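hiii, so i know i said id send this last week but things got crazy w the move. better late than never?? heres the sequnce for the chain we talked about at the cafe, plus the structure i predicted for it. fair warning i was half asleep when i ran it
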Amino acid sequence: MIGLILHVTVASTLVHFQSPSGNINCIGGPAYQGSPAFVQCLVKQHSWPKSITPRRPARCDLDYDPYTISLGNRRVSVGSCRGDIGPLCVQATADKCSTLAYGRSVGIGPFLCQSLKAGVECRYRTGSKAGFRIARETYILYR
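okay and structure toks below
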């Protein structure tokens, strides 16, 4: 069952949310001024098996977070080479981050993200429905 769907109405609006446990944090936005639509989620506390946890790429000279999954341009990728802290919900900033209740969904450009007790799932609404489900224990990629 898909719950309430919230739609992004302003092209430049970022959607930032966390799971009810606060362990999964996501950020995304629709295509804007030549940048593609995207959604990115990270799991803060994890127990992923080493066999599915990506290693730091040799070409990454910034901080590397293997527990981040990104979706955009109809592709999904695991791991993030970045120079910032990622989509963390930090209450001490002006960044508006909401909690997406279990069973609820949010529309972000071409994506639909749903908060489940088994994690957060984000997929394209049309076409191949590429996407992912991210959780404390594991992840699933939809290609």
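btw DSSP finds no helices and twelve strands in the chain. thought thatd interest u
miss u guys!!
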